[in-house]
């Protein structure tokens, strides 16, 4: 059939019920054919004695007897072996065959430039078989076939007129274009083809140039982003330290005021007690005199009067000058002046920062603009003329304008210079005023000693406050830039952050008392020190959490988010999910390891497939006698972990490398943090990426402890669960404070260990109870535990733990 050009459609041999090729075809009385199984199933569905054809709906009674259509079966089998030629109709974007008739035309495969007709696979066959048609030029089917036909003569455009630079037919050569420079299309193609390689080379060269500029701009953008991120992190860290330092100064001023208040009140209370005693004595004497006046015994009267008339109290009345409003007003005035000075410093430094930022931005803009404004000599050569380019004429990256050269920018820069000159003059005036005030204080200001801080009665400003302000200014580098003492400040900073070898060798003796608990730049305290000193209570220090790489990122921080939803991604507070799971566990009397695993994976969906709890499951199974005991501890740990916002209210700084730092927190705070580590609530921070924020930093969560089982983990888990059982029981819960200290020795102070004779591996542990009296005359009884662990590797490190137990 294919040799005769007969084209068969697939639908002619398809069953209208299953829509597939006929299988064991049978014919029914109306003439339609179906698969035997299809028509039988169709009639079996509604067997009511009346049977119809699925196509024409003709009914038959009774049910017709089905016979195989042998001829149709042979045709279908033959088609299966030889293959059925499918009909391909022209779609919306296809070229239709011009020879096909009917509403649906087949898709054209070839177009004849001589016939100016497009043919399908069937109708193009004569061009391959007929000798005359074989000479015609066949091309791939195109819809622009009519564009190759001359609109005047309806002939094929085969000639190129160089004079008029257009395509024409042979009739046009003899008509309108007679005498013009004309060449055949093939000849013009050959000549243009030789120029194609050169044009392509130019295009490729321009692509390479633009790719290079694109790469440079991308690198500049990445460098800009990296610098901006680093600047933001540094600024966050500096401002955090500044805020912390201001908090320390605030606490010191508060302590100063309270100390003065206490001293004055104590003195006044002593005088009040003295006066009350004198009044009582005088009233008693008055009553005795009154009684003596009524006696009739003259001898007794004279003898008693002599003893009663002598003064029993001093005739000089005690006096006290109470000036609370004046003194505290002076302190408030001093703090206000300090605030104004800090604001002036901030204003001056902000002017420098903003000006530097604009200059840096202009520099980057100029570099990027210069890169974009490179001339393209080949393009100018192609155009044959000089071209003045705009920086954004070829690259759609926005108009980059050099604002340094604009009149507005010059005016702004001039204003900034005048502003800076004015700031310098103001600073000079402030320095002169400060020197004059110092002279006045030295000449006529009486100073009073109070708690180690000298207070000038003239204005009430303490040297301690001024020293704090100067230290604060030096910390952020303001005064060091003015007087050139940056190196001195750097040395002081290095001394403060480093630990000398002689200091490291000191092992405190048992009788050595701990220093009074207080804040410092290198010592952070997570309790209210004022409450601790005055009331002896361990109240969490109020504050706020910091989402920064220098601090522990807390699970209850507002910045701790978790992605929810698979189709539409959204973010939710991670602590909401964590607290919901922990509170659900805390309500139970016992919880299985499966409950713990399910809760942890609920708020750690990213590691749901990675984290395994085999070790925890095995540990509980291998301890059948203690299984119920362990299962009762899990809810208590969850309850302790859910109370994190109550115990930890301020940021916890990391004890970083290369610095001597310490932190003090309560036993309850430590237990709460460990409970959250047990339930893996902390954001995961260990990363193999060298550029990551926490590269190779140990994670806080205990997920690795729960993974692979080993006998060594048995003792770890047992000790851990017994610890949580102890800290969650009110009867055995430990109290007091713990101080963790990290000390650092500089490389230049490192000894030659091969020649070193001192021992640094000594561990000294001692517990003792004694009465510790603070400078504020409050007496507290503490239990102090000193644990010193000295180790050395390539860099000497000392871990120093102090425990203060309030009793």
Structural commentary:
46% of the residues lie in helices and 12% in strands. It has 807 residues and is an alpha+beta fold. A hairpin with a 5-residue loop joins strand 15 and strand 16. Helix 6 (185-292) runs antiparallel to helix 7 and helix 8 (324-372) runs antiparallel to helix 10 (407-444). The chain is elongated, with a radius of gyration of 48 Å. The termini are far apart. The relative contact order is 0.05. Residues 15-57 form the RING-type domain.
Structural descriptors:
807 residues, alpha+beta, Herpes Virus-1, 3-stranded antiparallel β-sheet, 22 helices, 21 strands, 12% strand, disordered N terminus, disordered C terminus, zinc-finger, Znf_RING_CS, metal-binding, zinc
Number of helices: 22
Mean pLDDT: 73
What kind of sheet is the major sheet?
6 strands, mixed
> What's the overall geometry?
elongated
Poorly predicted ranges: 1-7, 367-417, 440-487, 505-511, 761-807
User: Which structural category do the helix and sheet elements fall into?
Assistant: alpha+beta
Tell me the distance between the termini.
109 Å
Proportion of residues in extended strands: 5-15%
Number of strands: 21
Main sheet strand line-up: 14-17-18-21-20-19
User: Approximately how much helix is present in the residues?
Assistant: 40-55%
What is the CA-atom radius of gyration, in angstroms?
48 Å
């Amino acid at each position: 059939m294919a040799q005769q050009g007969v084209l068969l459609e697939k639908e002619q041999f398809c069953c209208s019920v299953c829509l597939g090729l006929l299988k064991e075809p049978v014919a029914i009385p109306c003439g339609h054919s179906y698969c035997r199984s299809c028509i039988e199933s169709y009639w079996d569905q509604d067997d009511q004695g009346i049977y119809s054809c699925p196509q024409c709906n003709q009914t038959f009674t009774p049910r017709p007897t089905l016979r195989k259509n042998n001829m149709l079966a042979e045709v279908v089998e033959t088609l299966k072996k030889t293959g059925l030629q499918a009909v391909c109709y022209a779609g919306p974007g296809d070229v239709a065959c011009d020879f096909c008739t009917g509403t649906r035309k087949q898709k054209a495969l070839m177009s004849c430039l001589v016939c100016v007709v497009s043919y399908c696979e069937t109708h193009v066959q004569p061009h391959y078989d007929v000798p005359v048609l074989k000479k015609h030029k066949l091309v791939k089917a195109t819809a622009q076939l009519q564009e190759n036909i001359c609109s005047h003569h309806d002939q094929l455009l085969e000639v190129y007129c160089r004079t008029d630079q257009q395509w024409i037919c042979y009739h046009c050569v003899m008509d309108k274009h007679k005498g013009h420079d004309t060449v055949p299309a093939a000849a013009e193609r050959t000549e243009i083809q030789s120029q194609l390689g050169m044009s392509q080379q130019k295009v490729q060269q321009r692509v390479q140039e633009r790719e290079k500029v694109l790469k440079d701009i991308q690198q500049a953008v990445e460098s800009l982003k990296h610098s901006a991120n680093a600047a933001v992190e540094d600024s966050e860290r500096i401002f955090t330290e500044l805020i912390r330092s201001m908090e320390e100064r605030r606490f010191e001023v508060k302590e100063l005021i309270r100390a003065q208040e206490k001293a004055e009140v104590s003195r006044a209370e002593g005088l009040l007690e003295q006066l009350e005693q004198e009044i009582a004595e005088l009233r008693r004497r008055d009553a005795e005199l009154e009684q003596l006046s009524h006696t009739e015994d003259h001898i007794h009267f004279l003898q008693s009067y002599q003893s009663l008339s002598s003064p029993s109290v001093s005739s000089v009345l005690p006096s006290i000058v109470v000036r609370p409003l004046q003194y505290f007003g002076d302190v408030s005035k001093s703090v206000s002046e300090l605030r104004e000075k800090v604001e002036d410093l901030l204003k001056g430094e902000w002017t420098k920062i903003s000006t530097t930022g604009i200059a840096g931005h202009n520099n980057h803009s100029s570099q990027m603009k210069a890169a974009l404004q490179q001339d393209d000599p080949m393009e100018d050569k192609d155009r044959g003329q000089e071209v003045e380019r705009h920086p954004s004429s070829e690259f759609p990256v926005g108009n980059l304008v050099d604002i340094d050269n604009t009149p507005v920018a010059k005016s702004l820069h001039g204003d900034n210079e005048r502003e800076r000159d004015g700031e310098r003059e103001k600073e000079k005036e402030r320095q002169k005023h400060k020197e004059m005030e110092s002279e006045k204080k030295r000449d006529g200001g009486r100073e009073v000693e109070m708690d180690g801080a000298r207070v000038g009665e003239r204005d009430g400003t303490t040297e301690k406050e001024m020293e704090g302000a100067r230290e604060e200014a030096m910390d952020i580098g303001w005064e060091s830039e003015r007087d050139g003492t940056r190196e001195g400040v750097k040395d002081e900073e290095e001394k403060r952050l480093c630990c000398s070898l002689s200091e490291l060798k000191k092992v405190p003796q048992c009788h050595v008392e701990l220093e009074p608990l207080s804040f410092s730049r290198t010592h952070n305290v997570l309790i209210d020190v004022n409450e601790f000193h005055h009331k002896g209570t361990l109240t969490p220090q109020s504050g706020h959490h910091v989402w920064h790489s220098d601090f522990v990122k807390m699970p209850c921080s507002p910045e701790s988010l978790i992605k929810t939803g698979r189709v539409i991604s959204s973010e939710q507070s991670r602590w909401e999910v964590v607290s919901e799971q922990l509170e659900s566990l805390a309500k139970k009397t016992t919880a299985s390891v499966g409950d713990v695993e399910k809760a942890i994976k609920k708020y750690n969906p990213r590691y749901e497939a990675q984290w395994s709890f085999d070790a925890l499951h095995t540990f509980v199974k291998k301890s059948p006698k203690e299984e119920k005991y362990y299962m009762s501890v899990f809810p208590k740990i969850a309850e302790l972990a859910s109370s994190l916002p109550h115990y930890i209210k301020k940021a916890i700084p990391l004890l970083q490398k290369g610095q001597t730092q310490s932190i003090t927190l309560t036993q309850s705070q430590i237990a709460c943090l460990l409970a959250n580590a047990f339930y893996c609530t902390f954001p995961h921070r260990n990363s193999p990426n060298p550029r990551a924020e926490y590269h190779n930093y140990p994670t806080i969560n205990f997920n690795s402890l729960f993974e692979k089982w080993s006998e060594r983990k048995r003792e770890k888990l047992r000790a851990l669960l017994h610890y949580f059982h102890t800290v969650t029981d009110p009867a055995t819960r430990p109290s007091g404070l713990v101080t963790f200290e990290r000390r650092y020795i500089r490389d230049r102070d490192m000894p030659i260990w091969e020649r070193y004779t001192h021992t640094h591996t000594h561990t000294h542990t001692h517990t003792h109870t004694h009465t510790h009296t603070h400078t504020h005359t409050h007496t507290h009884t503490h239990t102090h535990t000193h644990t010193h662990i000295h180790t050395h590797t390539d860099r000497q490190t000392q871990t120093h733990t102090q425990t203060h137990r309030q009793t």
